[in-house]
Amino acid sequence: MLVEGFGGCDCYFTEMINAASLLNLGPFEKFYLLDAPVPEKIVWQLTGNKVEPMVKAASLLAHKNGVGVDLNMGCSAPQIYKTGAGIAWMLKPLSETLELVRGIKSALDDAEKECGVHKRLSVKCRLGADDFTDKSFFDFVEMLFSEGVEALTLHPRTLKERLIGKPKYSYAEEVSVRYPNVAVYVNGEICDCASADFAMEKVPHAKGLMVARAAAQKPWIFRELKSALSGEKKAGLKIDRKKVALDFVNYIEDFQPPEFYKTRIQRFFSYYCDNFSFGHYFKTQILNYHSLDETRKKIEEYFDKVPDDREVLI
Question: The pTM is what?
Answer without folding.
Answer: 0.95
